Amino acid sequence: MSEPVHPLEITPSLLLRAYAAGVFPMAESADARTLFWVDPKRRGVLPLDRFHVPRSLRKRIRRGGFAVSVNRDFAAVLEGCAARPETWINAEIRDLYLTLHRMGFAHSVEVWDAAGLAGGLYGVCLGAAFFGESMFSARPDASKIALVWLVARLRKGGFSLLDTQFVTEHLASFGAIEISRAAYHRQLDAALERQAQFWSLSATASSEEVLQLSTQTS
Length: 218
Fold this sequence. Notes:
Blueprint: E1 2-5, H1 12-20, E2 24-27, E3 35-38, E4 42-45, H2 55-63, E5 67-70, H3 74-82, H4 91-103, E6 106-113, E7 116-126, E8 129-137, H5 142-157, E9 161-165, H6 169-172, E10 177-180, H7 181-192, H8 207-215
Parallel strand pairs: 8-9
Antiparallel strand pairs: 1-3, 2-3, 4-9, 4-10, 5-6, 6-7, 7-8
């Protein structure tokens, strides 16, 4: 379900209230001059206590040859996510999330290799909820590696909800599921009543620590 809205009507504070109410904005294309609110009947979530790392990705992570950072280059991750033939990220979306990043609500996870930024993801934090917005890979597996590091960080920090908005085949391989709008709102309300710590995971955490943390069961 969606409702058109003029982009000038959306401020960062309104956007945060929208997340707390379970809706988020999108644009029809990079050149679109209007945004619309989205409130899916079936919501994608990635249960943090059932996160699955495929065996091939475990091997890739253990092989190394990359570095992971947080908020090192939020703008570049946003641009990487928008650099597709079809995208819902327009100029207004860019401005809004860059502002949320400066305010401390939006975060990026970057994966680097010898050639530079290999991929990453970004999203918004409120309470014990992380709202995943988008991810991209310039090299194989980079966005997957970023997701593993994100989940480890969320689990370490006491988060209870990882909202993926929708479920793709890519996300389903990690354990993402669809739930009803009502079930999502119950999880969201519970998460917003709690405080989590996005910065609990050490920047120097090893790959083995991250793999263990991201997949351990409660």
